[in-house]
């Protein structure tokens, strides 16, 4: 038996185990990022009745989410441009720290200040929360896009699990506490997820995946666009190719001619990179230029994400919650509807991790099939499909398709390019598209607001 071979096999086995542990840690990190990106807002949404009690007579259920939509969309719009101005540490860690503080501040303002001033302070706090939530969420989407589809999948499974976790605790609080002040329980859970993500971020900075993200950022700073073509200062592939061509040349005259041609070509390339009036520094592109460029690269994914979420939020939660329940069961019934959607959404995102199950055409087909739910939701709201289980199952299926299609689009977007820093910007734009679709869908749901009457 060869002892050297045994040592080599042992070292390889240890390295393989270390790599697997590292990959598991990183996936857990992105899962927690996914949970934390929505847990705070899910806590606020779950506890909206608390704010309705504090500000009696105001349309809290409709007005309170609006500042969040506005700030999410504004930051999502500008993030492809401002991301180079803000470090990844600030966009992830400091955003989570500030969100922890604001999450506790918001219900305290509502508890202590029942006046108009208190109401407007709540709206302002929610607007600021949206800013930092958008920074953290969209930056995480961009990071996962750089690393590959499995990380995108894990992140979005986390976003689905976030709603499921908060809803389960809502059911527990209904059974055990039965108080609207249980919002502090939901917020405490959200803050714990945020703290977990912050702690894991510092460990993540020591991994190869983190270095891959940093290298992508570095290449982005060195790159320019010339007629939609990316040119980077460091082009090792071209050098290797030229060396291999030169090594095959035997005739010295031909060699000299080739050298002259290469010198001329190099001068032309330098002029293109440094002096051509059509070149645009990717880092210094304005918002409009960045959006146009990324939408051209990723088309039609950003548009498909917008219309998917318009479709979803025109029915859920507004029309879904118009299902009639007995007065003593309404809170339970709406929680079960919400749980059905979130569990379905999480399951759909889990299935979306299997790349063999979808392509763009399949996802568009499933999107069109979802319009069947407009009929079922409206019939349930009108009382024509009255059994409770039909409402729960209907929403569960609606959630599965939403999660599956979302994950599919978020994976397909970064696949449109091989450049890591472009994948990240596609992630930013995809996150903006998602928020824009939610906002439009919520407003377009208003004509259905009294459909049950």
TrEMBL record:
One of its GO terms (molecular function) is nucleoside transmembrane transporter activity. It is found in: Membrane. GO terms for cellular component: plasma membrane. It comes from the Eukaryota. InterPro entries: Eqnu_transpt (IPR002259). Keywords: Coiled coil, Membrane, Transmembrane, Transmembrane helix, Transport. The chain crosses the membrane at residues 28-48, 60-80, 92-111, 117-135, 155-177, 183-204, 297-316, 357-377, 389-411, 426-448. Residues 251-278 form a coiled coil. It holds the Pfam family Nucleoside_tran. It is a multi-pass membrane protein. Belongs to the SLC29A/ENT transporter (TC 2.A.57) family. PANTHER family: EQUILIBRATIVE NUCLEOSIDE TRANSPORTER, EQUILIBRATIVE NUCLEOSIDE TRANSPORTER 4. This is Nucleoside transporter. It comes from Paramecium pentaurelia. The lineage of its organism: Eukaryota, Sar, Alveolata, Ciliophora, Intramacronucleata.
């Amino acid at each position: 038996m060869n002892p050297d071979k045994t040592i080599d096999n042992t070292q390889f086995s240890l390295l393989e185990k270390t790599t697997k542990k590292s990959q598991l840690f990183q996936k857990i990190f992105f899962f927690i990022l996914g949970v934390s990106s929505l847990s705070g807002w899910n806590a606020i949404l779950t506890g909206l009745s608390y704010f309705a009690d504090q500000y009696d007579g105001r349309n809290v259920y409709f007005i309170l989410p609006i500042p969040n939509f506005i700030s999410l969309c504004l930051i999502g719009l500008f993030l492809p441009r401002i991301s180079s101005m803000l470090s990844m540490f600030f966009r992830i860690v400091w955003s989570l720290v500030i969100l922890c503080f604001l999450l506790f501040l918001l219900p305290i303002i509502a508890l202590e200040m029942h006046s108009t001033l208190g109401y407007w302070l709540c709206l302002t706090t929610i607007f600021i929360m949206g800013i930092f939530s958008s920074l953290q969420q969209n930056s995480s989407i961009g990071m996962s896009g750089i690393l590959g589809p499995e990380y995108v999948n894990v992140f979005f499974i986390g976003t689905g699990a976030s709603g499921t976790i908060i809803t389960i605790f809502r059911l527990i609080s209904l059974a055990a506490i039965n108080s609207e002040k249980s919002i502090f329980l939901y917020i405490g859970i959200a803050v714990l997820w945020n703290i977990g993500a912050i702690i894991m971020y510092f460990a993540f900075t020591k991994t190869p995946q983190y270095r891959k993200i940093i290298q992508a950022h570095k290449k982005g700073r060195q790159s320019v666009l010339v007629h939609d073509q990316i040119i980077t200062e460091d082009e090792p592939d071209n050098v290797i190719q030229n060396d291999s061509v030169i090594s095959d040349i035997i005739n010295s005259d031909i060699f000299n001619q080739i050298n002259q041609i290469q010198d001329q070509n190099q001068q032309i390339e330098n002029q293109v990179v440094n002096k051509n009036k059509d070149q645009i520094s990717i880092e210094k592109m304005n918002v409009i230029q960045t959006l146009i460029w990324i939408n051209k690269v990723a088309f039609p994914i950003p548009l498909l994400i917008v219309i998917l979420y318009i479709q979803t939020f025109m029915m859920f939660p507004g029309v879904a919650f118009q299902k009639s329940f007995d007065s003593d069961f309404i809170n339970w019934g709406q929680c079960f509807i919400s749980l059905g959607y979130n569990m379905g959404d999480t399951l759909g995102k889990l299935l979306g991790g299997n790349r063999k199950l979808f392509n763009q055409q399949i996802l568009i087909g499933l999107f069109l099939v979802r319009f069947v739910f407009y009929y079922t939701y409206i019939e349930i709201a009108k009382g024509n499909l009255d059994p409770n289980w039909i409402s729960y199952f209907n929403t569960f299926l609606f959630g599965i398709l939403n999660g599956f299609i979302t994950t599919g689009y978020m994976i397909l977007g970064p696949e449109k390019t091989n450049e890591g820093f472009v994948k990240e910007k596609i992630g930013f734009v995809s996150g903006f598209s998602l928020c824009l679709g939610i906002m439009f869908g919520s407003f377009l749901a208003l004509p259905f607001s009294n459909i049950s009457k």
